[in-house]
Design goal:
This protein is 62% helix and 4% strand. It has eight helices and two strands, in the order αααααααββα. Keywords: Cytoplasm, Hydrolase, Metal-binding, Zinc.
Amino acid sequence: MEELEKLKYPIGHFECPKEISKEDIDRWISVLDNLPKKLHELVKDLNEQQLDTPYRDGGWTVRQVIHHLADSHHHSYTRFKWALTENRPLIKAYEEKDWSNLTDAKSAPIALSLNYLTAMHAKLVYMLTHISSLDYQKSYIHPDGNMNVSVAENLGKYAWHSNHHYAHIKNLIDRKKWID
């Protein structure tokens, strides 16, 4: 059971600091800024069979993880925009497991999502580096438990999410010894 938990959560669960500092924000923005290039470098030499290998038994394939990152971060980008432009909007959740079973997630070329992540993260990083400290306190309501999520916390969650799924792929590559 401990081994499965380590495969599912290789960097642990997200824990948001009670007080989010400017240093936290800067570090998290850096993660988002670096993810597209770092991810591309990690997967650029993988073949189709490797891309269609699950990162763990019962888990998503590398291809699905990459497409999931694009889908999830697309939602996050929209959540940032809603929080910044509306007064605590109630967002719409999505069924990520169902999205990851759609044809595009299971078979589309990863370049589609890698290119999308590059463009989307560039826009997101630009926006996040140009908003005020008061903007980071704005929030949205997540329908699962009616949780209030600040822009700063959402940034932390998606920096964690980036590292979380990067670790899934990196750990698989290391276990399989696919790259020297």
